[in-house]
Amino acid sequence: MLLRHLALLALLVAVAWAQRPGARPNQAQNQESGRELIRPDPEACKNRINHAATFRNGHYYFFSWSHGPTSQHERDWLDARNICRKHCQDLVSIETQDEANFVIDNLRTGNVKYIWTSGRKCNFEGCDRPDLQPSIINGWFWAGSNTRMPAINSTHGWRGDWSHTGGSGTPQPDNREFGENGNDEACIAVLNNFYGDGVKWHDISCNHVKPWICEDSDDLLNFARARFGNIP
Ligand SMILES: *[C@@H]1O[C@H](CO)[C@@H](O)[C@H](O)[C@H]1NC(C)=O
Description:
The protein is an alpha+beta fold. It has a single domain (about 1-20, about 40-230), classed as Mannose-Binding Protein A, subunit A (Mannose-Binding Protein A, Chain A). The chain is about 30% helix and about 15% strand. The chain has helices at about 1-20, 25-30, 40-45, 75-85, 95-110, 135-140, 175-180, 220-230; strands spanning about 60-65, 90, 115-120, 140, 145-150, 185-190, 200-205, 215. The strands form 2 sheets. It has a 5-stranded antiparallel beta sheet with strand order 5-4-3-6-7. Strands 1-8-2 form a 3-stranded antiparallel beta sheet. A hairpin with a 4-residue loop joins strand 4 and strand 5. The two termini are about 30 Å apart. It binds 2-acetamido-2-deoxy-beta-D-glucopyranose (NAG). Keywords: Disulfide bond, Signal. InterPro entries: C-type_lectin-like, C-type_lectin-like/link_sf, C-type_lectin_CS, CTDL_fold. It holds the Pfam family Lectin_C. This is CD209 antigen.
């Protein structure tokens, strides 16, 4: 358990380090040059909205399409993350089939074509650890909750809700765009029956723009509560 936490901490530090200004350029940095994660804003945290009909695992969820000012907005992965983070949230992390079903139900109900999740492939500086290779199989994690995902070919436990198909008819993740224009498909979106495949996960280049779902971040809420108190 301790080892696992240390591994996650190392990953988190690697993410922060890779996203600092002036980091050495690589594929991820080229897509996000000079852009950083922002800190939460106490007022925005206090006034954050819960669109989930039921209170799930003590977390609020925000659907960009259900909120007037953002209902027509689509953002790239990092911008969407930062909008969430301002509100002590992050993009949704889908750790269980139950949470996957919750997302599926809401995309269907809202007739939403696709959304960003916090799912991310470790493809930046600090990701050269052997246990993360090959990254398309072993490099996936939820940036919102700092948890690693099981290997996509793992034979036990829940492997997630990856689509069996995509633009080139092969199972996801396929990093298809990388072969076409060099953009690494390093972020996970949930697509609503885009390829006649149901509501499923696809690896997508992080610079695409999409609606998004935010989920409360325990880390950011603890950070904001410790400094400003009085945040639900
Ligand atoms: C998963 O894929 C990796 C890389 O191709 C391979 O080394 C490993 O044996 C695979 N694991 C399973 C359970 O198939």
